[in-house]
């Protein structure tokens, strides 16, 4: 009574949950990444509305052409490769070492179900794809959040330069600027709802995995190196959630900052005749 089939193979339930959570996390993130790549119209709509600014002759005269945070994206790619490589190495170390090393966790990671050179090689190949599937969706969210934040910061710079260039007169292109800002905000709201659903999946899976990892770390004997690997997974799961929340908050802050500047100008220095 109370036994399940895997106990006959020496795999405890917590040690089985970790690989299962890992594969489930990979599946959820891969599914979201597929949906994201298949639904690009909201992203394209944002950038189409953004580049309306650069068709404006005043903006061109100010020498603004639009910038991409390429340096930031390079750092993201480096971090992606580093964490993916560390994760694959961690999985391979667990698979190569004996059962006592990880408390039987390796038995749940073997792709072919047995400890052999072929199984370890196949597990390594699978883990490469799993590692990138685990990290790519959060990296994609962070990259887009950074890009959108930069766009709003550039918008605020454009807006300030337009007002400065107008001197004592109200800038002639204020209506265009205001309409573009409202359009961008509408698009960001669509993106925010879209990414919030994805983030909810990622948060839920990573937090659940972190709880299981913490439980395993406290209640199961294993080698100190294996404990360090579990801590690495635990910290990574929590860190992903914190980073995504931070960057999504930066988008909202940048958007509301521009909206505040527009509202201040409209209420303090502009009358209805100038807006007409």
UniProtKB/TrEMBL annotation:
Coiled coil: none annotated. It is found in: Cell membrane. GO terms for cellular component: plasma membrane. It is a multi-pass membrane protein. The keyword Glycoprotein does not apply. InterPro entries: Gustatory_rcpt. It comes from the Eukaryota. The chain crosses the membrane at residues 75-97, 117-145, 194-218, 224-247. Keywords: Cell membrane, Membrane, Receptor, Transmembrane, Transmembrane helix. The keyword Transmembrane helix applies. Pfam families: Trehalose_recp. Its main location: membrane. GO terms for molecular function: taste receptor activity. Signal peptide: none annotated. GO terms for biological process: sensory perception of sweet taste. Belongs to the insect chemoreceptor superfamily. Gustatory receptor (GR) family. Gr5a subfamily. This is Gustatory receptor. It comes from Elysia chlorotica.
